[in-house]
Amino acid sequence: LVSLCPSSISRSREMTVIPVDPIPVTITVTALNTTPIKIGSHCLAEGRRYGIAIGALTAGFLIAYTSAPRVIAYVAMQGGASTMFDLGRGKKITPRAASITISGRQASLRWFERGRTHLEIAALYLVLADNSKFAVSRRKSFLNKSLVAYHKGLSLEPRHPYSWLQYAQARFRENRRSTEINAPLRMSYVLG
């Protein structure tokens, strides 16, 4: 069997095939500079180089493919980073800042599902539910959205004791006589 190296042949104008031995076939190619080039082991070495390059490109593509959604999700969340920082410090945040942060977090969830993002959305909805400027029906809607987000976030990342406490507080605001707050309070105590 004869294997030809395409990069060597494409540079030549004239090709002469001379069988030297009947069993191992050697091909001599006359290139542009009229020096004979032996093809055989050269093609194997060049094939190995191509294999390594293709493997490196494939690995690079897979790394980029798997990390791109995370990067895009984090970029989408950067718009509300200062709002979350202020919320963590106990400062007052405006409803407009909270809604911008919520929309950024929801855009990030389209790229990468993360429990912590759901918990941040839940905390922001809880802040909006506490705002007395909104009508009662709208505040109730914010509270329900907060409960749904807490449920999703805690099911994905259950090791957040303060989030369990906030979930219990949201449940208490929903129904003050409910015994459903006992389990989240217990989880908050156990994890804390």
Topology:
Layout: H1 6-9, E1 12-16, E2 27-31, E3 36-39, H2 41-77, H3 81-88, H4 95-111, H5 115-130, H6 136-156, H7 161-174, H8 182-191
Antiparallel strand pairs: 1-2, 2-3
Would you give an account of this structure?
With 192 residues, the protein is mainly α. The chain contains 8 helices and 3 strands; from the N terminus they run αβββααααααα. The chain has helices at residues 6-9, 41-77, 81-88, 95-111, 115-130, 136-156, 161-174, 182-191; strands at 12-16, 27-31, 36-39. Strands 1-2-3 form a 3-stranded antiparallel β-sheet. A hairpin with a 4-residue loop joins β2 (27-31) and β3 (36-39). α2 packs antiparallel against α4.
Describe the structure concisely.
By secondary structure, this protein is mainly alpha-helical. The protein contains eight helices and three strands. It starts with 5 loop residues before the first helix and ends with a helix.
Give descriptors for this structure:
192 residues, mainly alpha, 3-stranded antiparallel sheet, 7% strand, disordered N terminus
* Overall pLDDT level: 79
Q: What's the helix count?
A: 8
Structural class: mainly alpha
Order of helices and strands: HEEEHHHHHHH
Stretches where pLDDT is under 50 for at least 5 consecutive residues are 1-14
Strand count, sense and barrel status of the largest sheet are: 3 strands, antiparallel
The whole-angstrom Rg is: 32 Å
| Strand segment tally | 3
Q: How much of the residues is beta strand, in percent?
A: 5-15%
Helix content: 55-70%
What is the spatial order of strands in the main beta sheet?
1-2-3
